[in-house]
Each structure stands twice: as structure tokens, then as C-alpha cells.
Amino acid sequence: MNKTLKRASKGLTLLVGGMVLLSSCKKSFLQPEPLSFYEPGATFNTENGLMAAMAICDRHLKGYWAVDHNEMLTLGTEYIFSEMMVAGATDKRNMLCDVASMLTPTSETVYQNLDRTNSIWYLWEETYKGVMYANTIIQYVDGVKELSEAVKNAYKGRAYFHRAFRYMALTMEFNDIPLVTTVVGVPKQNFRSTTRDAILQMITADMEKAVEWVPDQKDMPLTGLVNKGACRMLYAKCLMATGQYEKAKEQMDILINQSGYSLMQGNFGTFNPGGEPNTWPITRNVIWDLHRPENKLIASNKEVIMGMPNRGADVEAFIPMLTMRILYPFVFDNRIQTKDGKQALLNIRRSDVNNYNNKYDYMRAFGRGIATFRPSSFSTKDMWAVNGTIDATDLRHSSTHGNWIRMEDYKVNNKASTEFGKPLSLRNNNGALLCSDTIRRWFDVPHYKFFLNDPINEANITGSDGLRGATNGGIADWYLYRLAEAYLLRAEAKYYINPGDATIAADLNAVRQRAQCSQLYNGAVTIGDIMNERGRELYWEEWRNVELKRVSLCLARSGKPDEWGNTYSLETFDKQAGTDNAGGSYWYQRIVHYSMYNKGPISINSTGNATPNYTMDKKNMYWPIPYAAITSNNKGRLSQNFGYDGYDAGVPKWDKWEDAVKDEATY
């Protein structure tokens, strides 16, 4: 790996005294700790102090993907508010499945203690922390006299990126929110919400500067810092969110044609054969190589625009990624049986020489899944159809190459069964289910994305489960942006300009051809085709909920139709309540057409939520502003979102970001 953030993190010790400033963001985030006993200017008047603050920004960004927050992955919340996933921990009585009823401004247990199935409050809290970290750099960089204007601007540009990334997420998740652009010195309790569009206008202007000021990766000595290519990607999303589609296309043209990036077309880097090749062999292919942590940030990977270092000797702050525990099916118990009534899959220690067989070591090959989240059938099956045909050669969906796992790929490893060595069966010969909880225990997995080595646990041959033996998922570098997304963003921008543009299909096909697909797009392409290709290519890389809502906004601004011919109005697209299938946003239409929501209760044999009812309302387009944030702002009034208790259309808001910034100095 190239040199990473090690040098930047040397200044972290300077922040020990300043952590009151940088991490006192609990429920009272709108009441920052007074700084009467601490002067941050003393910390941030040198480049070392700025480097330390930037390292915290970068590490915090990585944490959205990698954090072990109460044995879950934060990004899962983004995916269960989309058509791609639902909560899967069926033994949890408070599992967030009945979203329409459970999600309220006062449901503190939903925000904080909902049995490891969501991170809504955590995302509110943590994302405002990220804003504060970025504001610290922006506020103090001009006071560092040793730096040239160009270097100061580069710091500002990176901080603008971090702040804009967080505000893009917050506005799509929560809509109108408090705008904070400074590190306040005394408690402020009179915030007023700023409209989504005003904040989007501000971050778009900021990102225009960032694209100008931040260097290209090739001109930087470190890997993992925000670079010009990453700024172009986020700038293009801001431009589209504000209706500037031609400018967004121009940015992607530059990124694709003039910035030195290219899609990886063949095998490269180090070949990782997987956890147990005798159980699950991998036929080496470009998709597998592209998503191996050891290949993501190497110089020969021309596709990576920005990645997040999380492995190697130069990275000082590792964060575990529990993908193999949280996102694989829960198979090692008697709820999956054989046709002769035996438990189908056993976890056998490698030290058990009389029973262990490396042809059936699914714990080591696939990990010890508990399915906190499970994919929708759409995301594992129907989404892969192009031209009405499931593409048999798509490497991203290929069990033949080892990239994708279907339940029938498991073979019974219980020697006591007459089915030993045969593929799992969902039903017996009479048609009765052999799996008593298909939500948590029967679904496909994109193995090429989620398989992450854990060499320490893999070496423990006496271990019997994912905590002491095989793997939960390891420490891994991760992508933030790849060039493949630039092609998909350009296709989207072209769609808003002219849906009949024949080159839209060419952009999608560039990504598909790399995956060796046999089904290519011909003729007119819908926004649904574009979103489906994003789902195939960017699973667990993009923030799916945020992107769906951004696209919903773009469709309403542009007046262009969705794949069903619906058009949307800016005045109503996010404010129509009710769980009927008519109306609502494009986000809602994707959910009701493709997900498990609003299909009725599902009866399962489980010790917890025996009949989960998956529901989603149009109002859930935005999450409720947490009641704790509203009440702590006791000298002002924040706006609650439509459809939730406390909503009042008459609550005043700032509709110009400049006015909100001026107001930050009032208390």
C-alpha cells in the first residue's frame, strides 16, 4: 500500500486536551460544552494540529462503514430504509420492521436500544460530530501563519468535502435541519431549522471551491486523504440535487475522460483464494480482485478514486468490519433441517479430527452469520434481470466463480443424515418447509463484497464459532468512490437532461461489460434501469437510502418520469401520508414495488417476533427530528417533519443559508 494517514495522525496527541470540543456531541449536541477553560486556537495554530483534526475527519468517515456499533453496522440502517434490505433479527421483539408505527420523534428506544437493528439516532449524533470536526478546520486554518494560501485552501477544500458529505446525508435523511458552520463557544439553544434546499445551495458552492483547491491524488504523498476526484464526485451529486444537471455531467466527463482513472478490466493485485478453498473455491476474476481489501488502494488499481485505509502497518486506527457476522444467513442451528429430520449444518472444530472435513467448513468459508439485516428478494434475484432475462454471465452474481452464494450452494455436513454431501433443500418431498425462519436463514449473499479475512481467528483451529474460531469479518480497506459510480452518475445526469439520449445506455453498458454481462442495454433507458445498476455495482458502498432520496428530489425537480411513468411535484412528493401504494415519492414507490414492506405479517417459528409485520409509510421518506434535539433547543423551535407528532407547517425556517450563518452568533 502507498503511504497512508500515519503522518497525519502524529498530531493526535495535541487534541487530548481538546476532546471536550471535538467529541462532546451527545443528545445535547445543540448545547456545546462551554470553552471557558480551553482555547482551541492554541491547538490549531500549527499544521500538526490541522493534520490531527483532518485525521479525525477521515477516521470518522470510515466509521460509517466499519464501526462496530453495538454489534451492528451503521450502514445497515441506510439499507433497511430502501428496497434492498430489511431488519432480519427475528428473535428481537423490538426489531425495526413495523417502521410506519414504531418510528416516532419520542421513540428513544428506537433510536438507541432497538436490539441492534438500527442506528437512526446514532446517525444524527455522529453526523453532526463530523460537521463539527470539519468546522474546526475551516474556522482555524487561516490562523496558521506557516502555511501558504494554496495549502490553507487545500485544507479548507477537504474540510468542505467532509462537511458537505455529512450535510448531504442529513438533508436526505432528516430534511430541514439546524445548519451549523462554526465551532460555537457558548451554549446555543435558539437554533432554527434551515431548509434542505438552502443547505444544498451552500454545500454546492463549497464543493465548487473544493474541486478547485484540493489536489489530484497523483499529486499527493498520502493515500486516504480527500482528493480532487472525490470532490468532483460529491460536487456532481450536489449539482444534481440542486437541479444543475449539465454541470454535473461536465464534472463526470472530466472525471471519466481527463483524470487518469479507468475501469479495471482484468485480474490484478494479490489473489486471495477465500477462507476455505476446499469448501468454496474461487475462480479468479476481476470482480473478486477488485473487492479484495489488499487490492483496493494499491497503485495498480486505476479505478479507485478515494478509499478509506483500514489495514496495513501505516494505519494506526483500525476499525473492525463485521460483515460476515451481520450480513450472512444464520445457518448453524436446527431451524434448517434435512429431509430426514436432522440439523443440516454443523459447526465442527478443525481440531475435531474424527468429524472435521474441509470440504464442508462453512464457518471458515462464509463466517458465523446472524443476519441482523437480510436482503430483499428483489436485490438478490429480480434486480439482476436485464431485457427480461437474469444475466447468467454477470460476474457480480456468479456462484460459478464463487462471487455469489445461494443457499443451495451449501451442502449438508451432518454425517448423521442420509442427505450428507447433498445441497440444502428449502422444502421436503411433500412441499413442507425445511427452514422454519426464511427471513433470517435463507437468502443469497454477495460474497465478493462481504468476505473479509480475519487471520487471527482463522488460525485458531480449536475455536467453535465466529467469536473464537472462524471469522466475523476482518479489518479491511474500503471504497468511498470508484470510477464505476462516475459512469452511473453521468448516466443519471443525462437522463434528467434528455431521457432519450442514446449514450445513457453506453454508460451503463461500460459497467456491465466489465462484469462480463451478456445482457446489455439497448435503446431507451429508465431511471429504474440506472438505479438497478447502482444496486448491482455499488451494494454496501453507496448510502442507498440517501441516494434514493436524492434521486427522488431530482425527479421532482426535473419533471422526468420514473420507470412506471409517474411524475412528481416538488410541493408534494415528500409530504403524502398513508401506506397505500399510490402517490408518495420515488423512494416510496421503489419500496412498495420491490421490498418486503407493506405486504402483511409474516408468520415464522421464532422465539422473538413470531409474526413480524414489515411496514413503511410515505412519511418515512424523512426520519423524525429526535425529540431530544427539539427539547434541548428550548429558546427556539426546530421544525418537525410532515406526518410526525409535532409537525407544524407554520414553524419559521431559514430559507437562505446566509441568514442561518449570521444567526449562529446570536444566543
Explain this structure to me?
The chain is 36% helix and 4% strand. Helix 8 packs across helix 22 and helix 10 runs antiparallel to helix 11. It is globular.
Would you summarize the structure shown here?
With 667 residues, the protein is mainly alpha-helical. 36% of the residues lie in helices and 4% in strands. It has helices at residues 6-9, 19-23, 47-66, 75-80, 99-102, 108-112, 120-140, 149-174, 196-213, 228-241, 245-257, 286-290, 323-326, 362-366, 377-380, 438-441, 447-450, 455-458, 483-497, 503-514, 527-537, 544-558, 586-594, 627-632, 657-663, and strands spanning 85-87, 177-178, 193-194, 304-308, 373-375, 385-386, 389-390, 478-482.
Overall shape: it is globular
Please work out how many helical segments DSSP would assign.
Answer: 25
DSSP E strands, number:
8
Specify the structural class.
mainly alpha
Largest sheet: 2 strands, antiparallel
Beta-strand content: under 5%
Q: What is the first-to-last residue Cα distance?
A: 48 Å
Strand arrangement, largest sheet? 1-5
> What low-confidence regions span 5 or more consecutive residues with pLDDT below 50?
1-38, 109-116
User: What percentage of residues falls in helices of 4 or more residues?
Assistant: 25-40%
User: What is the mean pLDDT?
Assistant: 89
Provide the gyration radius in Å: 25 Å
